[in-house]
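QA checklist item 7 of 12: single-chain prediction sanity check.
[x] sequence parsed
[x] length recorded as 248
[x] structure emitted
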Amino acid sequence: MKILALDSSGLVASAAILDEESVIAEYTMNYKKTHSQTLLPMVDEIVRMTQQDLKTLDAIAVAAGPGSFTGLRIGSATAKGLGQALNKPLISVPTLEGLAYNLFGSESIICPMMDARRKQVYTGIYTWSDEVFQVLMDQTACPVEEVLLDCVRYSRKADRPVILLGDGVPVYREMIGEKLAEAGTHYLFAPPHLNRQRAGAVGVRALELAREGKLETAASHVPVYLRKSQAERELERKKAAKAEVSDI
């Protein structure tokens, strides 16, 4: 099975073509450019460099969320457009599972964190047991302190260290260190080549989901946001304030 995988859910933009045997090509950029400027050109470049025919793809995988609202929309729109044009199914990969797959096979407690602002993170907790991927805590949006308590709990229960990765880690690094050290939990941070989104990892997770029959049409695909956007929250705040004034 050959897959085009996309991830624009966070600060990083990444595209890859892979099959059951190897990652044929991957283009990952963590730079100050918008994903609308980079994602499609990255796809074009790996297709050109590897002389791939997109018609030979079996599916298109996309990091479906949570994450940046704009980034998710760009990734979703790109995947849907290619899927409809090529008549290929889509595979929605939970963003945090894709991040966890950077550490494929690790039996440590894996905690990816994406900065969700307001002292919250998009996160989940994962591990591998007997080479089987385990979702210990499904992806969610929550305060940093809350997920750190969960990390301590799972670490103690399994007697395993915690590995943290994702763009939320540098934002809350000091807090992470303090809370886990206070609890006596052994922890470490993933190295630079593994600590951000990689389309290759999204694609590997997608291959497993495809084997489980978790495919969808391009038309039916929708991103997973978990939270309302800042614009939606601000609109609700203004409506509530206006309602309060009208009741006076």
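[x] summary fact logged: The mean pLDDT is 93.
[ ] second reviewer sign-off
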